[in-house]
Design goal:
156 residues; two-stranded antiparallel sheet; 5 strands; 54% helix; 13% strand; flat
């Protein structure tokens, strides 16, 4: 196979993956109904992967977890469960939609790890505070303490 043929195949494969997992246009030759079913299944699978890394965030959203996450993730390529969850939690925080359990989890992650939104998260080496939607956590000596949990809504 010539170099240009391999390059063309690689470009078509990249377009196919982008269309499936990052909201790219559907490539020619694919029917829309099966395509959308495959795309929805991949987004649900991605939501499950993120929920394994961010269980409190997923629990805090309850039945809204899958629809809210898949709506957010539909236009973004996956960066892995840990980074996707971190980005999604920050997205919810910035819109004042982060549930209390998710705020506790985000504050804990921010206290124990350093993540700039672009590169792989790294553990912090020095004491640090993490804050999210009223939750405050401190990380030191490889441990983390939640100093103040996020405010919980009053029970109905």
């Amino acid at each position: 196979m010539s170099g240009s043929g391999a390059d063309d195949l690689a470009a078509r494969q990249a377009a196919l993956v982008a269309a499936l997992v990052a909201g790219g246009p559907v490539p020619p030759g694919f029917r829309s109904a099966p395509w959308e079913a495959a795309r929805a299944a991949l987004l649900r699978k991605r939501a499950g992967e993120v929920a394994r890394h961010w269980p409190l965030l997923a629990a805090g959203l309850g039945p809204l977890w899958v629809p809210r996450f898949t709506d957010w993730a539909a236009r973004r390529p996956s960066e892995g469960g840990l980074r996707d969850g971190w980005d999604f939690a920050r997205h919810l925080r910035d819109r004042a939609q982060l549930p209390a359990l998710g705020a506790d989890e985000l504050a804990t992650r921010e206290a124990t790890g350093r993540y700039d939104g672009h590169t792989t998260p790294r553990p912090r080496r020095f004491p640090a505070l993490g804050r999210a939607a009223g939750a405050v956590a401190v990380g030191y000596a490889g441990r983390v303490r939640l100093l103040r949990a996020a405010p919980r809504p009053p029970a109905p």
